[in-house]
Write a structure and sequence with these properties.
Chain A: It comes from Hemibagrus wyckioides. The complex is a heterodimer of chains A (about 180) and B (about 350). Chain A starts with a helix and ends with a helix. Chain A has 6 helices and 6 strands. Chain A has a 6-stranded mixed β-sheet with strand order 2-3-1-4-5-6, sandwiched between helices. With about 350 residues, chain B is α/β, with parallel strands linked by helices. Chain B has 2 domains: about 110 residues, Tubulin Binding Cofactor C, N-terminal domain (Methane Monooxygenase Hydroxylase, Chain G, domain 1, Up-down Bundle); about 190 residues, Pectate Lyase C-like, CATH 2.160.20.70. Chain B contains 7 helices and 13 strands. Classes of the chains: A alpha/beta (about 180), B alpha/beta (about 350). The structure holds guanosine-5'-triphosphate and magnesium ion (MG). Magnesium ion (MG) binds next to helix 2 of chain A. The site of magnesium ion has 5 residues of chain A, from helix 2.
């Protein structure tokens, strides 16, 4: 039995998952994390390093890593790749001027060997803004249909209202759980 | 974080009693948790009932308001639209505060109703306020902010990569783009709780009287931009030789040089790839500023304008050379008159 299989089994027993949240700065990663956990979102500052949150959901223990997305921090992203079960890519759906940047950063991540086994959830965030692009438009701009290397799904959501956060996370957990089972 | 290390050795006999104890403890906790869940379910059913009643009453109220709004009395129509916009905003806040106990279904329904209301208000606005008339509307008596040149509101025009059809074909963008040497004004009817973009402006004076949901400022030079309280973040990129007067939850400043920022920020301001940026406290006032603060949800008493994080200067102890505080004697205190630069 390989080390990876043992690791997966152990995790499976503990029902523990490691999720990594990335995306451009201002996308709403920290706000999503806090809203999901029922915390106050009005005091959130731009993230200078990273936040880790451990929470229980549907009997799973989730270790969620939320890493700052400012340009100067992106080169550190790779320090957090190891053992990631799920990658949550957060997009500011109303920031049209930076969608191209957003596409490039995501496609670079998907080439990373250490993220090869991870499931990808794309949150098209800020759907409450009148100028937000729909999740289908985001899907097209980010060329998600070209992704063949990862299981992926895009969900339109709003960290402000909390809309669809649960839907996204639940899909992610189901997909990861299915993979960990079949590894046995 | 939970500091208990994962146990890797399953055949360790000494650990057994502890495990049994732990399992029992877990069983008790689970019982307790279920009991609590049951209780909180009853509470949240009550809350949902209250939410439904209050939400639909207010929704009906806004619909009535909108249908009472006609083109015949222009001044009144503007007032009514403003009132309706405020009410929608409050309703959104009410919904936001209720999300903890609402089901996903309930939430989606309410969000859809709100979007419909937003839609009908936009229709009404287009109907009763043809754009031109609106742009020239005279402002509160006493101010001398008169446009010297026609203010061009470039809704729908966007600076995007050519060939990117999805991005180009988009819903209207609220704001101003590609303007030189002009005075540009928007009032709350147009910008309230919307995402506003100011891009490619040179030597312009911009006044945004209202509370946008978010504001992007990109590629501006020699501009003076004043904006009412922004609910979430203000994102600034490629700004030069300008003065910004802003209130927001977060300020994110990039690639900006020789710029003064008069700021009210309730969490933090950050700079990245900037130099020569200086800060002072927000000191603009206008007729409805207090109302707009309420709409924005920002705490007017909480201002961290002087705590700026420089992402290119993370050395603790030594202050960043890229930003400074504007000495009190050098701060501008009056913003009323705005003449366009020749
Ligand atoms: N209207 C709206 N604003 C949002 C939403 N999600 C986040 N925001 C706002 O967007 C701004 C940025 O949110 P953050 O959560 O700090 O963004 P981030 O992705 O963590 O940014 P970094 O830490 O710099 O990487 C804040 O002002 C939030 O209030 C949303 O769904 N709707
Ligand atoms: Mg963050």
């Amino acid at each position: 039995m390989g080390l990876l299989t043992i690791l997966k089994k152990l995790k499976h027993k503990e029902r523990e998952m490691r999720l990594l949240m990335l995306g451009l700065d201002n996308a709403g990663k920290t706000t999503i994390l806090k809203k999901f956990n029922g915390e106050d979102v009005s005091t959130i500052s731009p993230t200078l390093g990273f936040n880790i949150k451990t929470l229980e959901h549907r009997g799973f223990k989730l270790n969620i890593w939320d890493v700052g997305g400012q340009k100067s921090l992106r080169s550190y992203w790779r320090n957090y790749f190891e053992s990631t079960d799920g990658l949550v890519w957060v997009v500011d759906s109303a920031d049209r001027l930076r969608l191209e940047d957003c596409r490039k950063e995501l496609s670079a991540l998907l080439l990373e060997e250490r993220l090869a086994g991870a499931t990808l959830l794309v949150f098209a965030n800020k759907q409450d803004l009148p100028g937000a692009l729909s999740k289908d438009a985001i899907r097209e701009v980010l060329a998600l249909d070209e992704i063949k290397t990862h299981h992926w799904c895009i969900v339109g959501c709003s960290a402000m209202t909390g809309e669809n956060l649960l839907t996204g996370v639940d899909w992610l957990l189901d997909d990861i759980a299915a993979r960990i089972y079949t590894a046995d | 974080m939970d500091g208990v290390p994962t146990k890797v050795c399953p055949s360790d006999a000494v650990k057994i009693p502890e495990r049994v104890l732990r399992r029992d403890q877990e069983r008790l906790e689970e019982l307790e948790r279920r009991k609590n869940a049951k209780e909180s379910q009853t509470v949240s059913e009550e809350k949902i009932g209250y939410f439904r009643a209050a939400f639909s009453a207010e929704k009906a109220n806004i619909e009535d308001l909108l249908s009472s709004c006609t083109q015949t009395d222009h001044q009144k129509a503007i007032k009514v639209l403003e009132e309706a916009t405020n009410k929608i905003q409050h309703l959104q806040k009410f919904l936001n505060d209720s999300t903890v106990f609402l089901t996903q279904y309930e939430l989606r329904q309410a969000q859809e109703s709100l979007q419909k209301l937003q839609g009908s208000i936009a229709e009404k606005r287009a109907e009763v306020m043809p754009k031109k008339k609106f742009a020239f509307r005279s402002r509160t008596a006493g101010t001398s902010l008169q446009p010297a040149v026609t203010p061009s509101s470039t809704e729908g025009q966007l600076q995007t990569d050519p060939g990117n059809s999805v991005v180009d074909s988009v819903v209207e963008q609220c704001g101003f783009s590609n303007v030189q040497n002009e005075i540009l004004i928007k009032h709350s009817e147009e910008i309230q709780q919307r995402d506003v973009l100011l891009s490619h402006l040179t030597n312009c004076k911009v006044r945004l009287y209202g509370s946008p949901s978010t504001l992007h400022i990109k590629n501006v030079r020699g501009c003076q931009i004043l904006c009412g309280p922004v609910s979430s973040s203000v994102f600034v990129d490629e700004c030069k030789d300008s003065t910004l007067v802003l209130a927001c939850q977060q300020l994110r400043t990039h690639n900006t040089t020789s710029t003064q920022i008069y700021l009210h920020v309730t969490s933090r301001a950050i700079i990245e790839d900037c130099h020569g940026v200086s800060f002072a406290p927000f000191n603009w006032t206008y007729h409805k500023l207090d109302d707009d603060f309420r709409v924005s949800g920002l705490d007017p008493k909480r201002n961290n304008w002087s705590q700026v994080d420089d992402f290119n200067w993370l050395a603790a102890g030594t202050p960043s050379p890229n930003w400074a505080v504007i000495p009190e004697s050098e701060r501008t205190s009056s913003w009323d008159t705005a003449e366009p630069k020749a």
